[in-house]
Each structure stands twice: as structure tokens, then as C-alpha cells.
Amino acid sequence: MSGRSLLLSVLVVACGKKADAPKKPTADPAKVHALAAEMIKNVPAMGAVPQCEDSQLGGGATMTYRTVEQLGGEKISPDPEHAAWINPPQLDSPAARKLADGADDHEAAAELLAAPFYVVYRVEMVNAPIALAVKELKIGTVGTRIIRYDKAGRAVCARAWYFQNDQAKSDWAIEHSTHTLIDPEIAEAMRQDLAQQFVKLAPRGTAGSAAAKPN
Q1: Domain assignment of residue 129, given as a range
Q2: For residue 205, what pLDDT is reported?
Q3: Could you give the number of structural domains in the chain?
């Protein structure tokens, strides 16, 4: 082989190595399950930790408390606060969602464990009769607590936060609920609206929560 050919071969091999993407970090998903179990054990009592400010919520991995329970292997309660419709997956970081859906994804586990902290949206009250198909004609209100956990699953701060159905949609539902029972389609529309309001308004830190005003 000539010197020129040898040089070209070396350059081709070198370029091929540079083109190889670096491997992503991996971790055992069992570590995520253990972390979630620790979070469940450390749900703070009201007033037990300082109140979270907006500046403490931006930059962490987010997830609903229902997702934390799924990751921790807990049996999901059948009450409205734990229902899938009021714990929208759009609030979950992609890595948390993958693992909660049962994926044995070591890259997702590494991504989630690498988060600097965790912001968990815990639904604690669903006062939304129409969404629950109860004939009590008033706007739906949902009460939550937003909890920041450190990397070890310990609660650092928490705050209460409430949101409601869109006023126009609530007025529409009330106007059209003229029968003895709530129309299933109206109940479903109110459930979907509450989930959308949750995703749109949930505080995510200073940069992401301009539309959300804590109560």
C-alpha cells in the first residue's frame, strides 16, 4: 500500500470514530423505584417544611404524585384525587413517564436520577361536582400541594396551589345540565378542561409560571 493510500485509510477510520455518538449514561431503574418509595414516605405534613417560592421550582424534574406512586410500586387509590384524568402525564418529565409506563429504560433512569431535584404535583382535593357527574352546579376547583424533593427523596419545601375550570366552559356546562343526571359528555368535557388548566397553569419556576398565581 502506498503512503498516500495508507494516510487516506487512517483518515477514514479516524473520521468514523469521530462520527460515533457518545454513549448516554445508564442507571438501574430499581434506583428510581427506591427514590420514589422514599418520596412517598416523606410527604410532609402541612406547615412541616418552608413554603416553596417560584425560584425554587425551576430546573428540576417534574411529575405528578400519581406517577411517584406508580414508580414506587404503590397501589393507586380509586378516589378522584388519584384518577388518571386529574394527574395529566404532560406534567411528568419524559424520563419519569417512560419508567412509570413500565419501560425498563436504563437511559431514562440515569436521566431522572441526574436531576438536581424533583417537583411533585400532589392533588389533595377535587371539588368538581360536574366533572364527577354529581348534580351540583358550580365551577370545579382542585386543590394541590407542590412539593420539592431533594435527590435523596426528602421534602425541602411545599406550597398549596388551587385552580379551577375555565369560567366560560363552566358556565356552558351549568347551562346545559338541565336533566336529573349530569350528561356523561358534559362530565368528560369538564374533566378534560380541568386537566388542561392544570397543565397550563401549574407553577414550574420563575420562568415557566407567569400565568400561575399561587393561592
Answers
A1: 23-201
A2: 76
A3: 1
